[in-house]
Amino acid sequence: MKEQLEAIQAEALERISQTENIKELQDIKVTFLGKKGSLTGVLRGMGKLSKEERPVVGEIANKVREAITAAFEEKNEKLEIALLEEQLESEAIDVTLPGRPVKVGGPHLLTSIVEEIEDLFIGMGYEVREGPEVETDFYNFEALNLPKDHPARDMQDTFYITNELLLRTHTSPVQARTMREYKGEKPVKMICPGKVYRRDTDDATHSHQFTQIEGLYVDKHVRMSDLKGTLDIFAKKMFGEEREIRLRPSFFPFTEPSVEMDISCKVCHGTGCNVCKGTGWIEILGGGMVHPKVLEMGGYDPEVYSGFAFGMGPERIAMLKYGVNDIRQFYTNDIRFLKQYHKA
Ligand code: DAH
């Protein structure tokens, strides 16, 4: 039995020293020391030994186990270190390599313009309101002094959903909604940015969906000069302090009198050039004094209250401010176009 044990030890040590594979090393351990291993097999036969022989063989067996275990552990550590070193080498990061820049997004140009305009009016005490894009005929037209069959409805080609429901053609219905909500009881000072829809063929200056910002100020003693002063501040803050504004008579059913506001051309400052088509002025927005009928339908007594309103297209503002020449650039999401306007 002693020879048997020595043979097992010799074989185990030999195999342990030969292997360079950590998994194989584990298998070797099991082969010799495992429950069904050869050393265990020999020990099982010890029952047949005499009382005197048993401790002697037992001691040898323990020594053999210790020798195999020690050899295994030593080799295991060696292989683990080797494995780790290999891993460290193959997964090493070269910290001296230049980094890859992180791509940072930014707000869409249209979003930035709308936010800029919002901030400007918030600074003048306006609140920002929203309204539904699917609107009723009443709010989109009737409450704005555009009764059914009124010829001015033709100014805004409309997507109708039913006879009474439509996609709003402008943000002006939010004027009517706000006045009715305030029930003629308190002043209104609001702007409303949002999407609007018209049955237009898309080209460089038209889109079936675009953006508008509506403005409405209703209070006692609001005058035309208040409108002019407000628009002057807006134009100067938006386009530069040197810009002049000009109000031209115009027509909108919801305002009386109605105006169109121009700003002086930034290239020729009013003398005329090809940017302003020789006029010296560039059209920006429409506005006017809120029509008494609109005030009345909104619940405000036109004998007590007066107001001004205006409506503008942020796309147009952005096009003029940044020299964008095709409105479709705002909607096609070409990153090469958009990223020019990301502020660093
Ligand atoms: N709603 C008009 C449009 O879409 C713009 C407009 C003009 C709004 C005059 C107003 C206004 O509030 O007073 O063409």
The largest sheet has its strands arranged as 1-4-5-9-8-7-6
Number of strands: 9
Rg, rounded, reads 43 Å
Determine the number of helices (DSSP H or I, runs of at least 4 residues): 11
- Annotated CATH architecture of the largest domain: 2-Layer Sandwich
Characterize the overall form: elongated
Please name the CATH topology of the largest domain.
Answer: BirA Bifunctional Protein, domain 2
Bound ligands: 3,4-dihydroxyphenylalanine
* H/E element sequence: HHHHHEEHEHEEHEEEHEHH
Instruction: Specify the CATH class of the largest domain.
Output: Alpha Beta
- N-to-C span: 84 Å
Find the CATH superfamily of the largest domain: Bira Bifunctional Protein, Domain 2
Q: How large a portion of the residues is in β-strands, by DSSP E?
A: 15-25%
Walk me through what this model shows.
The chain has 344 residues and is of the alpha+beta class. The protein has 2 domains: 2-90; 109-341, Bira Bifunctional Protein, Domain 2 (BirA Bifunctional Protein, domain 2). The chain is built from 11 helices and 9 strands. It has helices at residues 2-18, 22-33, 38-44, 53-90, 109-122, 137-140, 173-182, 224-239, 292-297, 314-322, 335-338, and strands at residues 127-128, 134-136, 165-167, 188-197, 209-219, 245-252, 255-264, 281-290, 306-312. The strands form 2 sheets. Strands 1-4-5-9-8-7-6 form a 7-stranded mixed sheet. The longest helix is centred in the N-terminal third of the chain and has 38 residues, at 53-90. The relative contact order is 0.10. The model has no long low-confidence stretch (mean pLDDT 92). 3,4-dihydroxyphenylalanine is lined by residues 170, 172, 214, 252, 254-255, 286-288, 309-311. One of its GO terms (molecular function) is phenylalanine-tRNA ligase activity. Tetramer of two alpha and two beta subunits.
